[in-house]
């Protein structure tokens, strides 16, 4: 016959199994995550389908933005459109791009696709219909940016600044008396200038700033100073300035005391 | 305790490392150590042929890689001399790596010895918990110093414990201080302890901290044990003698060479290191960096068990409930990681510099795991089944990680990081060194035309030559110094080298990779080919 303390003893006995149960639960959770991870990521077929959709639907003023920005395996599949890997979609420049296709892996761990979408919304972009290809999501965004009047630098050349590939042209830095110069002709409007020091030398603080003097038809218009990058300050510096309308000769004169650094510059004008 | 179980586990470790080494690429450091070992091998041959000349010319052969002492590289050299040069049994790289596998086996042996003081299952669990993660398993394969110094840290601990009489040869019986045998410790144990410390000193500078740990340990022991420990400490003086004997570079002008060695590490460069979206370039580093990194790279069960082990040891220390042996483990583990929490010590290299922290927590973690199984068996679960459940829960995620990621160990991340893609989203270092390039070598061998020039990025010329000697890379493929000079480029994805990819696009006129190695979608190695060349998209 069972004594009065028996139920308490049984409970106590069962409690002894709790540590092992906890370890087992931990192991099961870990293994469940590991084994299901590949199911949350896209396969070759998903990439191929997304690329095919882009081939059919995208136009000449479209570009693709990858999300998370590290998801660059898509470059192997997308050959018809420029691929961008900007990290801050609210502030990123997409000059000349009317529609941006956000190609994302929504189920990748810590992908935070909502952050990307919020960034696009904050800049005034309008979302289109989302398509799904297995582990990939593809969504067009109408950027509603200003119309580009002239590219003053070649957007096909790219260099890394702040660890992001930027459409910019490498310009020699000269000493102050003999600055490196980039010249271009284009239409006036709102002049956008971006510049930064390429690679790890951007972070060498002892080297001092780089000065970019902008001239229009030989007259000074603006100056952009690019200091060594000290995060969280950006290394990709920017100015917007009004330039007189009509066609003009633009010159960008780049100088610094320490000239031994690769330097990159982008400039374009948009309608006011 | 008979040593049969630790020896069997050690043999198993050696066999596992040997069987899984073929895909492990030659990490940057290995390239230097291979070259150094080749030079030392020449010196050994000279020593056999003309001893006087060898003794005279130590500087010529040994100044290569002066910044690390000679023992590990001498063992790599001797292994190569015997198994490749003389017997012709093994390829070059495998022969160099053989001593590293032996150190891995020794680590298993010593961990099992320490854990066996708690229980027999703990003796099995301790090395399994240490090796059951891709990061630690990967490092066991390399002809480097990280696992050797980790093993020797554990070995010095075991030798010290035996020399002062707190670790005996019977299982599950930690001798309480009051019952210590009054007979003095046999001198051979002290001699072996001093010798092992010398070996540690002659492998890597992490050993500089060991005397301080052992002194503090001795001072915290009960009176009788303390006296014995303090009497044993002077055997550490054997260390410099072993260091001197094992490092012929010191045989001429030792003060200068010792000064160069110390100075190199006292002023070590800080490599950029990607951590939660920030490139860490110099001090002050985040204080909990090493602990956070361990939590992110190890499988979740190990993270939990090691954390519990550390907490339990600290708790018992605070409550004066630590046995002398557990106190020693806590001290050695702490000394392995604390220097990297000073905020000024270089932190690059993932977890490799503080592997001994993980290792020395393993016996306690194993004890907790075995204890959980033991408690469950008291609740009515058959003991064998309880142990099986414990082993499966604790080790299967790690085994999966190894099966999934190996041999790309520097890229491995655990469940807390969200695996490899989660870590990429969090902004963690994607990989380090350049060993992942092995994944694209077969493609290059198949597609690159004869004499093609390839930019191998972070693969240094020493490793490039090693790949060719190992037959992993075609002998006619040439080493290019940059994309402008190359027909193909194999870029290893590192945040701090991000500029290399746009540079390659501009040089090659294409942004479409020809192939690549992507681990769970994350780019690891991306290969570009100039348009028109075989394999180009």
Report what the structure shows.
Chain A has helices at 6-15, 18-40, 44-57, 113-122, and strands at 62-67, 83-84, 99-104, 126-127, 131-133, 136-142, 148-151, 158-161, 164-167, 169-171, 180-187, 190-197, 210-216, 219-226, 237-242, 247-255, 263-270. Chain A has four helices and 17 strands. Chain A has two domains: 44-142; 148-270, Sandwich (Jelly Rolls), CATH 2.60.120.260. In chain A, the strands form four sheets. In chain A, strands 1, 2, 3, 4, 5 and 6 form a six-stranded mixed β-sheet that branches. The mean pLDDT of chain A is 95. Chain B is mainly alpha-helical. Chain B folds into two domains: 4-263 and 287-397, no CATH class; 435-529. In chain B, the strands form two sheets. Chain B has a five-stranded mixed β-sheet with strand order 4-3-5-7-6. A two-stranded antiparallel ribbon of chain B has the order 1-2. In chain B, strand 6 (515-519) and strand 7 (522-529) form a beta hairpin. In chain B, helix 5 (71-86) crosses helix 6 (92-116), helix 7 (120-131) runs parallel beside helix 19 (383-405) and helix 9 (146-163) packs across helix 18 (355-378). The longest helix of chain B has 25 residues, at 92-116. At the A-B interface, helix 1, helix 2 and strand 8 of A face helix 16, helix 18, helix 19, helix 20 and helix 23 of B.
